[in-house]
Fold this sequence. Notes:
The chain has a single domain (4-110), classed as Four Helix Bundle (Hemerythrin (Met), subunit A). Helices cover 69% and strands 0% of the residues. The protein is built from five helices and no strands. Helix 3 runs antiparallel to helix 4. It is globular and about 40 Å long.
Amino acid sequence: MPNWKTEIEREMERAREAERRGNAGRLRTCARRIAGIALKQMQQQFPQLQLSSDYLSALYAVKKSDSVPPHVAEAASRLQARLSENFTSPSSDPLADAMIIVEFVEQRLSA
Protein backbone atom coordinates (compact mmCIF):
# COMPACT_ATOMS: atom_id res chain seq x y z
CA MET A 1 0.00 0.00 0.00
CA PRO A 2 1.39 3.41 -0.91
CA ASN A 3 2.30 5.80 1.85
CA TRP A 4 0.17 8.84 2.52
CA LYS A 5 2.50 11.26 0.73
CA THR A 6 2.37 9.12 -2.41
CA GLU A 7 -1.42 9.12 -2.21
CA ILE A 8 -1.38 12.90 -1.94
CA GLU A 9 0.90 13.20 -4.97
CA ARG A 10 -1.45 11.02 -7.02
CA GLU A 11 -4.39 13.14 -5.96
CA MET A 12 -2.42 16.29 -6.81
CA GLU A 13 -1.96 14.96 -10.34
CA ARG A 14 -5.71 14.44 -10.61
CA ALA A 15 -6.30 17.95 -9.26
CA ARG A 16 -3.90 19.52 -11.76
CA GLU A 17 -5.62 17.67 -14.59
CA ALA A 18 -9.03 18.87 -13.37
CA GLU A 19 -7.71 22.41 -13.16
CA ARG A 20 -6.24 22.17 -16.67
CA ARG A 21 -9.64 21.03 -17.97
CA GLY A 22 -11.47 23.75 -16.08
CA ASN A 23 -13.36 21.26 -13.91
CA ALA A 24 -13.68 23.24 -10.67
CA GLY A 25 -15.88 20.63 -9.00
CA ARG A 26 -13.38 17.85 -9.55
CA LEU A 27 -10.55 20.12 -8.42
CA ARG A 28 -12.41 20.86 -5.19
CA THR A 29 -13.06 17.16 -4.61
CA CYS A 30 -9.38 16.36 -5.13
CA ALA A 31 -8.38 19.12 -2.71
CA ARG A 32 -10.72 17.71 -0.08
CA ARG A 33 -9.21 14.26 -0.58
CA ILE A 34 -5.69 15.64 -0.26
CA ALA A 35 -6.53 17.27 3.05
CA GLY A 36 -8.42 14.17 4.17
CA ILE A 37 -5.50 11.85 3.42
CA ALA A 38 -3.22 14.02 5.54
CA LEU A 39 -5.73 14.24 8.38
CA LYS A 40 -6.21 10.48 8.31
CA GLN A 41 -2.45 10.05 8.71
CA MET A 42 -2.41 12.46 11.63
CA GLN A 43 -5.21 10.56 13.32
CA GLN A 44 -3.30 7.29 12.89
CA GLN A 45 -0.30 8.84 14.62
CA PHE A 46 -2.42 10.50 17.31
CA PRO A 47 -5.38 8.17 17.98
CA GLN A 48 -6.65 10.44 20.76
CA LEU A 49 -7.72 12.98 18.12
CA GLN A 50 -11.42 12.92 17.50
CA LEU A 51 -11.38 13.06 13.71
CA SER A 52 -13.58 11.03 11.42
CA SER A 53 -12.54 8.70 8.62
CA ASP A 54 -14.99 10.65 6.45
CA TYR A 55 -12.92 13.46 4.92
CA LEU A 56 -15.63 16.11 5.16
CA SER A 57 -16.31 15.29 8.79
CA ALA A 58 -12.58 15.41 9.51
CA LEU A 59 -12.37 18.85 7.89
CA TYR A 60 -15.33 19.98 9.98
CA ALA A 61 -13.62 18.72 13.15
CA VAL A 62 -10.46 20.65 12.26
CA LYS A 63 -12.54 23.75 11.56
CA LYS A 64 -14.06 23.53 15.05
CA SER A 65 -10.84 22.59 16.86
CA ASP A 66 -9.21 25.01 19.28
CA SER A 67 -5.90 23.17 18.92
CA VAL A 68 -5.13 24.20 15.34
CA PRO A 69 -3.88 27.59 14.20
CA PRO A 70 -6.57 29.91 12.83
CA HIS A 71 -5.27 29.78 9.25
CA VAL A 72 -5.55 25.97 9.28
CA ALA A 73 -9.08 26.11 10.69
CA GLU A 74 -10.03 28.68 8.05
CA ALA A 75 -8.64 26.51 5.24
CA ALA A 76 -10.60 23.52 6.57
CA SER A 77 -13.71 25.67 6.81
CA ARG A 78 -13.44 26.76 3.18
CA LEU A 79 -12.84 23.21 1.98
CA GLN A 80 -15.70 21.62 3.89
CA ALA A 81 -18.24 24.33 3.09
CA ARG A 82 -21.01 23.71 0.61
CA LEU A 83 -21.26 25.62 -2.62
CA SER A 84 -23.34 28.77 -2.53
CA GLU A 85 -26.70 29.01 -4.29
CA ASN A 86 -24.94 30.23 -7.43
CA PHE A 87 -22.51 27.28 -7.24
CA THR A 88 -19.45 29.21 -6.10
CA SER A 89 -17.02 27.85 -3.55
CA PRO A 90 -15.85 29.74 -0.48
CA SER A 91 -12.35 28.58 -1.45
CA SER A 92 -10.84 30.59 -4.27
CA ASP A 93 -7.87 28.17 -4.32
CA PRO A 94 -8.82 24.72 -3.00
CA LEU A 95 -5.36 23.26 -3.63
CA ALA A 96 -3.71 26.00 -1.58
CA ASP A 97 -6.21 25.36 1.22
CA ALA A 98 -5.46 21.64 1.09
CA MET A 99 -1.72 22.29 1.21
CA ILE A 100 -2.15 24.47 4.31
CA ILE A 101 -3.62 21.42 6.01
CA VAL A 102 -0.97 19.06 4.64
CA GLU A 103 1.81 21.36 5.88
CA PHE A 104 0.18 21.55 9.31
CA VAL A 105 0.00 17.75 9.48
CA GLU A 106 3.62 17.39 8.38
CA GLN A 107 4.68 19.79 11.14
CA ARG A 108 2.64 17.91 13.75
CA LEU A 109 4.03 14.54 12.66
CA SER A 110 7.63 15.75 12.72
CA ALA A 111 7.34 17.41 16.14
